[in-house]
Amino acid sequence: MSQVLSELVAELNAGRLRVVDLTQPLSPQTPLLPLPPQWNNTPAFRIWELSRYDERGPAWYWNAFETGEHTGTHFDAPVHWISGKDLPDNSVDRILPKKFIGPACVIDVTAEVEKDPDYLLSPERVRIWEQQHGRIVADAWVLLRTSWSKRADPKEYINVKEDGPHTPGWTPECSAFLAKERDVLGVGVETVGTDAGRAATFNPPFANHYIMHGSGRFGLAGLCNLDQLPPTGAVVIAAPLKIVNGSGSPVRVIAITP
User: Fold this and answer.
1) Is 166 annotated in the active site?
2) pTM for this structure?
3) Where are the alpha helices (DSSP H) in 102-179?
4) d(C-alpha 176, C-alpha 123), whole Å
5) CA 172, CA 202: separation in Å to the nearest integer?
6) pLDDT digits (tens, 9 = 90+) for 227-245
7) What are phi and psi for residue 197, nearest 5 degrees?
8) What SS3 class is residue 17?
9) 70, 74, 80, 209: which one is catalytic?
10) Which of the chain's ends, N or C, has fewer CB atoms near its CB within 10 Å?
11) Element (H, E) at 25
12) Longest Cα–Cα distance in the chain
């Protein structure tokens, strides 16, 4: 074992490094992103028992399940969006595994979101963060901390009003800034999807999906426990299932942090 890996294991065993689970539980109660009825919606997570040490299988317990690729805490691959459909290595089975791992840059906008659920992160706000914490490094995960995941009521989490959903996110200019000028791996959010609730009205519509995936970047949605991470210094591991031609996958996202 290399010295670096030996030191990593020793630091974890000694408790000087922590593993933080950034993943929400996946169950039939997991909130889903609602789409207009003219489009196919993702099916709710469903799980059923195959055997439990009984006549169906005397020595084993196991289940079967079905769900959509973008249910709960999940990974968005470039092929998920039309802008990324022709890129090479654009599905979850073809992405290089090293791209699932990167340093975390956590931008805390909880105070802003408490005042405005439609809050959008701008390039100017990112530059202010960089003045305090340093320039966002290439191949980083940029995580938007909003405390949105603390909304236990699914209706409050989705937050649909008469004029549509209201959740925070990124301006189109911010998505372009992170993808083009900061060369990030991708972005992560605590909300049900990586675009803001009002993003259908943006130019282009759902601009974060369009820009990030068209640039070969990734998305992580449905994160939690971002308040347990420092602004910089943590490493995020987000490895999706190796679904052939998959556009995404439910994922167990973890962070290693001091």
Assistant:
1) no
2) 0.97
3) 110-115, 123-133, 154-158, 172-176
4) 9
5) 7
6) 999 999 999 999 999 999 9
7) -60, -30
8) coil
9) 80
10) N
11) none
12) 64
